[in-house]
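check this:
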Amino acid sequence: MIDNDTIHLFVKLIKFSPRATLMNVSFEELKTLFETDPAAAEEKVKEILEDHISTLEPERQQRARAFQWRLEHDLRKFKDPIARMNKMVELFWKGVEQFQTALTQPETLLNQQGEPVATFPKKKP
C-alpha cells in the first residue's frame, strides 16, 4: 500500500530523473488516484517505473528490474507507513554510503562484492 509520503517522494524522484518520460505526473494526481483507487495507484506507479526502466540501456534494464523487485520485496513486510518510510530511509543511506565508498575506495567495494580486483604494480622511479 502506498502512502502520501511515498507518492510525494516518488514524484520528486521522477521529476529529477533526466530520462523519465512521464514528467507530467503530479503529486495531486497520484494522491487523488491513491485515495479513490489504491490498486490503480499501485498500477500507475508500476507503469511509471517500468516506463523509466525501459529508457535505460538494455544491459542495465535487468539490473534495474532486479533492484526494484528486491526493494518491493523488502518493503512489502512493513504495513505501518512510518516503519516503511524508516526502512526506505535506511536503504537510501546505505546506498549513499556505498556510493561514497565506490568513489573513495573502489577496491574495498569490489572486494565486498566478491569480484576480482585488478591490481597494478607500482611504477619504479
